Amino acid sequence: MAKYSIKELTPMPAFDMMYFMEIAQETRLDQDLMEEFEPRWDKWLNHCRAYHLENTQGEGSFALLFLEEEVEDEIEGIWQDSPTHGLLFHSLAITMVMTAAQDLIPELASGHCAPLPRPGKGILDAFAELGLTWNDEGTVNRKYAVLTPYPYNGGCEICYMSETCPKSTVRS
Fold this sequence. Notes:
Layout: E1 4-8, H1 17-24, H2 31-45, E2 48-55, E3 60-67, H3 69-81, H4 83-104, H5 106-109, H6 121-129, E4 134-135, E5 139-140, E6 145-149
Antiparallel strand pairs: 1-2, 2-3, 3-6, 4-5
Helix pairs in contact: 1-4, 2-4, 3-4
């Protein structure tokens, strides 16, 4: 018997221009480029995967969201043609995955941290069944991916005070 369960989820991320601008660190965008976003967003929705992974022997329950390799390849092609546009479409992909995560876990939309867990054997087996690999450095073999506890069960409440936190507001 499997030590895990996999349930497909269906997030419905809506494009949020202000959130995209924040991720892209842009204050303005060219209209022609903006017109390319909508068809890409709609197309990429078909490649946005979301799963509820649960270790049936007590390891935990997680949301895994990622964009399939086809999206990565498309962004790489854009990047080769124009690094500037490539960076913006890279930001669009990040926006999609994070908006999808926020759709499933509302606490993330209100600014809570999406802590990255260290998956155990059961969850790693679920990854393998999905054709994914967990890397030792704490990443999945998809460029645009989120793995976090599901449902939300809190993040590190002192994270912003830590020198090692990428969101730290107290770094010297």
